[in-house]
Every structure is written in structure tokens, then in C-alpha cells.
Design goal:
Elements: H1 3-8, E1 23-26, E2 37-40, H2 42-49, H3 62-65, H4 71-83, H5 87-92, H6 97-111, E3 130-132, E4 136-138, E5 143-145, E6 150-151, E7 162-167, E8 170-175, E9 179-181
Antiparallel strand pairs: 1-2, 3-6, 3-9, 4-5, 7-8
Helix pairs in contact: 4-6
Bound molecules: zinc ion (ZN).
């Protein structure tokens, strides 16, 4: 394990303070640098890595770790508090904008696992091409997206019922049930 990281962590788990079985945890999305890793004990790691119900008793430690000066520790604390639905502590936790964006990047991706499906039930992925199967009035843009229009390079917006794409040079939201993957 990186000696600089151990030194920063004071040879303790940066979440719960345990001194046993320490290892490195990369805080995704991570470039592997020390700024984007934290030092954790086995108990914390198993809770974070494993698909287990989080032990809210153990993670009372987050009430301390969330005040860490180390952004990566703040990010992990924030994500765990979210998973634990601990709104009380989340309300108290203040993250700088860039740290908040980092912290949310994983929370969001785990929530958007559900991908939109086209009219045939085929999963649509970012960058796919689709055709529109029904004339669609585009609200606010004053045109109709015609049936049969090809939309290249769709963009997923996190809503499992929608995709976004350019029609007539305008980026619009399309309901995935009116699309067919090409
Ligand atoms: Zn720990």
C-alpha cells in the first residue's frame, strides 16, 4: 500500500478509524492517484464493494468522516450516506461544487441502470440510431417530427422512457416507445 496514503490516513481507516486490515480503495471514477483513493479497513471495504445491505451501525462513523478535509473521503462518505438515506447528515454536509459533482457521478450511474427501450422492447444505448415510427408534434419547437425520420447518435438523459436526439437540427426529447432502433 502507498506509504504516502498510509501517512495521510494516520495508519487508520479513513472512514471508521479502524487500524486493522487496511487497504486502498479507489474512489470512482478514479485515475488511481492518491487524491482519488482512500485508505479503508476490511469491514468498510466489504460493505462498499459487496452487494450487501449497509450496516448503519457501523457507518455511524460517517458522521465524523464526512468532515474530513480530504475530498475523496468526503465523496465516499456522501455516497454511503445517500445509500443509507441518512438525510439528516446529508443536510449538514457541505461539498464544494466540483466535489459534489464527483460524488454524484456514481450515485447517478447506479440509478440510471435502467435503459430506455424502443417500441419493440430493444434496449437503446447512447449513440444508437433510431427511426421515429409515428408523427410527433414537437412542443415548443413548432414542427412535427415525421414518421420515418432517422435520428442518429441518440443521447440518453437518464430517463428510462426518453432519449434525446437531433431532428431538423434541433435537439429534442423523444419518447422511446415511438422509436425503432436501426
Ligand atoms: Zn473502516
Amino acid at each position: 500500500m502507498d506509504s504516502k496514503l498510509l501517512e495521510r490516513a494516520n495508519h487508520k481507516c479513513e472512514l471508521c478509524g479502524s487500524v486493522e486490515n487496511l487497504s486502498t480503495l479507489e474512489v470512482t471514477p478514479s485515475n488511481g492517484s492518491i487524491e482519488q483513493t482512500i485508505c479503508v479497513c476490511d469491514t468498510c471495504r466489504n460493505q462498499i464493494d459487496g452487494n450487501v445491505v449497509l450496516d448503519s451501525n457501523h457507518f455511524r462513523c460517517l458522521g465524523d468522516s464526512m468532515w474530513s478535509e480530504i475530498p475523496a473521503v468526503q465523496v465516499v462518505s456522501y455516497r454511503l450516506l445517500k445509500k443509507l438515506n441518512n438525510q439528516e447528515l446529508l443536510d449538514m454536509l457541505y461539498l464544494e461544487d466540483d466535489i459534489k459533482a464527483w460524488a454524484d457521478s456514481e450515485v447517478e450511474s447506479s440509478e440510471t441502470q435502467e435503459l430506455p427501450k424502443d417500441s419493440n422492447g430493444t434496449v437503446l444505448n447512447q449513440g444508437d440510431s433510431v427511426t421515429i415510427i409515428k408523427d410527433l408534434e414537437v412542443k415548443g419547437a413548432n414542427f412535427t417530427a415525421k414518421r420515418g425520420t432517422l435520428v442518429k447518435g441518440i443521447i440518453l438523459n437518464g430517463n428510462p422512457e426518453q432519449v434525446e436526439g437531433k431532428v431538423n437540427g434541433t435537439r429534442i426529447v423523444l419518447l422511446s416507445c415511438f422509436l425503432k432502433k436501426v
